[in-house]
Every structure is written in structure tokens, then in C-alpha cells.
Amino acid sequence: MRKIIILLTLCLTLGVAFAQNFNQAQALKEISAAAASIKTMQCDFAQTKSLKMLGDKMVSRGQMWCEQPNMLRWQYNTPYTYTFILNNNKVTVKKGNHSDVIDVNKNKMFKEIARIMMNSVLGKVLTDKADFKSSVIHKSNYYIVTLIPQKKEMKQMFTSILLHYDTKLKLVTKVEMHEKNGDSTLIELKNIKKNTPINASQFKIN
């Protein structure tokens, strides 16, 4: 469940742009509008997990592909292999040689996750107060959106989620997730490509 929530959070970052003339309310509206113009996105990522109790950090790397309105592939390559694929109402979770296929219409938890994923891809999540309370600040070359979970399931996991937008690229480059237990996760997106064709095989459900 924790890995799925991390994947969900990453969906919040897909293709979102930001206005140069900073005004918090207007900026959130323009983020949503800009996101709708992005049909596909793909990138590499590095994920650093900081464990409070152990004082340790774990780094993993992989790739992400997304195509509106309802297809996503999130793939860890090192130090382990793990893949999450969403294609319409079907989800495949692969770990090593084992895979499970889930029909989101028959699973309440996955249906909710899929709903938030789609709202995120479409840019609706930042203005949907039922899911998150949003605020924006301007710092150096970034706009930083802080999301405070409003629903019970997310509040049990996270205290806050921070999305960092590069004002030059007008795309997210970092996501910070702060958990209730004091752990945190930093995801850095690199080599981002938007609106380029993606082979349909990337979203194939086995």
C-alpha cells in the first residue's frame, strides 16, 4: 500500500506548469489548465528514502511513462525491480517474476487510487479540496506547492507533500513526501519529455 501511495503522489506532478506572475489562487488555476495540455510525459527518476529510526537513506532509480487520460507505468530498475501499470480500469503490479492484475472497479481501494490518479493527471487535484489543501510559495527558481492531505487514508500516511516546480522548465523536478512516523521520501525527476509518442506496449496489462 505504501508503494502504491508513493506512485499515486507522483501522479500529482505529471506535466504541471506554473505562471510567472505569482498569485496563489490564480497560479493553482493556471497549473490545472496547463496540465490539461500535456498528453504524454516520460522521465527518469531517483528516489531517496530517509528513515528516521535508523538514520539511514535508501536510493532507488527507475523510469516513468504516462499518457492521458488513464495510462501510467512506474518502474523501479535498481536496486530492485518493481513495476506498477495502470491501463484504464486495470492495474498490474509486478515484482520480479510475479505479477498481479486488479480490476479497479471491483476493488474499492484501487478505485479510489485510480480516481485520484486521473484527477492528478488532468490537473484537478490541486483545486480539489476534498483530497488536499493547497498552498504555494515562491523560493529562488522554484514555486513550491504544499499539499496537506484531507482524507483519512492519506492523513494516516503523510503529514505533507511538497511539489517543486522549476520556473524555467515550467515542470516539476522534485517531490517531497513527509510521513507521520518521521520518515521522508524525495523523488527527483530527470530527462523529462512531454508530448512525445509512447509505445503502447509500455502500458500492456499481462
UniProtKB/TrEMBL annotation:
UniProt KW Signal keyword: yes
Protein name per UniProt: Cell envelope biogenesis protein LolA
Keyword Signal: yes
PANTHER family for the chain: OUTER-MEMBRANE LIPOPROTEIN CARRIER PROTEIN
Annotated signal sequence range: 1-19
InterPro entries per record: LolA/LolB/LppX (IPR029046), OM_lipoprot_carrier_LolA-like (IPR004564)
Swiss-Prot/TrEMBL keywords: Signal
